[in-house]
Write a structure and sequence with these properties.
Blueprint: H1 3-7, H2 20-34, H3 36-49, E1 52-55, E2 58-61, H4 62-83, H5 90-109, H6 120-158, H7 161-164
Helix pairs in contact: 2-4, 3-4, 4-5, 5-6
């Protein structure tokens, strides 16, 4: 697959002329493809070690995690795909990324400390702040990559034809 084919691949086209349902589906598919390995590992761990596991004083509900982790990833990707046309500037991309990150990490945080409601507030704070920070960084990073791709395509169009073969 040539680099141009990757940039113009239909799955990666999340522009405003693509219907909302298609952008949501594509965003969720991309996110699950990127984060699929941890989803599979978490499901395998849930099957092999039982429902509850305690590590370093933190109890995890692996069955809930096996469902909520892929759900959170798909939800974050769907929101990113839906908001892609809105994210034409760096601040807007950061906002879309932060919203997607907060919702995705909130789903994931539900697997922590299932029997300790007094600690849920702390996990909620971690998921809100961590999701906003990571989502912001991902949104700005995707925006910057899109700008670099646009600049490269513009530069390629400006070159004379004889130089394009090189």
């Amino acid at each position: 697959m040539a680099p141009d084919d990757f940039v113009t691949h239909p799955l990666l086209q999340l522009t405003a002329d693509v219907p909302l349902a298609t952008r949501v589906r594509r965003g969720a598919t991309i996110a699950l493809a990127v984060m699929g390995v941890p989803c599979v590992l978490l499901a395998a761990l849930a099957l092999l070690s039982g429902r509850y596991v305690t590590s370093r004083g933190v109890e995890l509900d692996l069955w809930a995690g096996a469902v909520l982790y892929p759900l959170g990833v798909a939800l974050a990707g769907a929101i990113g795909g839906a908001g892609a046309p809105f994210a034409r500037t760096a601040p807007r991309a950061a906002l879309v990324g932060a919203v997607a990150g907060v919702l995705g990490m909130s789903c994931v945080s539900l697997m922590f400390q299932p029997h300790a409601p007094d600690r849920w507030r702390a996990w909620l704070l971690v998921s809100l702040s961590g999701g906003a920070l990571l989502g912001h960084l991902v949104g700005v990073g995707i925006y910057a990559q899109g700008q670099a791709d646009d600049d490269e395509r513009r530069a390629r169009r400006r070159r004379p034809r004889r130089d394009r073969a090189a």
